[in-house]
Please model this.
Amino acid sequence: GTGDVTRAEFNIHIDSPPEISGIDLPDEIYEDFKIAVIVNVSDAESLADLVFYRDNDVMDGSNSDRSRTISNDLVIKWEKDALIDQDGDGIPDNDWITSNETLATLVTLIWDDPGEAILLVRVCDGMGLCDEYETDVTILPEQDADPSLSDFSWDEWKSWMSDAGSDALGFIALILAALILGWLVMRQPNETEEEAKQNAETYEVEHADDGGMLGMDHHLPPPAPKILSKQERRSDDSGYIRPLRRRE
Model:
């Protein structure tokens, strides 16, 4: 006869290490200047939002214990120069530093001296599988800022003007004349300002605070019309207009 058969099925997921596709660096890197560096990395388990657990005691007869959750967070470490042994342990490419930035893939780095360096990054997942990537870095000497006009002394200005000659001085004079004429043109009152000035003279306004525009509170009310005499009504200078009367 046949004996009893026990069969069990398990779904097995094989962990994949992270994959680094590159490092984003500025086009120019200067000594003693802080820069932001970003590693481009992807992880299949993190993208699939898979959650894994670890059984700390596989000999207890249970195959469903969830003693510890395996983190999906990636551990990223940086080595500024794989050719220089920073800690003096005889291994030049293990002087790892970690980032304190909110974005885990970003780190800020500073190189103290100009020259060539090899930037190395290592990314590991929760299971301890890692990927590494390195790139060559050229550190330029510290860049001097361009001098401003205030940095020139009077002697330097006189030397420059003497070297420039009469043509350059004539050109500067033309520029100054154009600036002065432009200022005079801009100072000419526009139509609104002219109207405000005329209204101020008409209504005896000493000052208007609303941008030069006259308001209800900026002038005295006009005088009440007086009663014209018969001769004044007949005079053309009075502006009197005889009202029309409708015949019933």
Summary: The mean pLDDT is 78. DSSP finds four helices and nine strands in the chain. The beta strands are 19-24, 29-30, 35-42, 52-54, 68-70, 75-79, 106-109, 115-124, 130-140. The first strand starts at residue 19 and ends at 24.
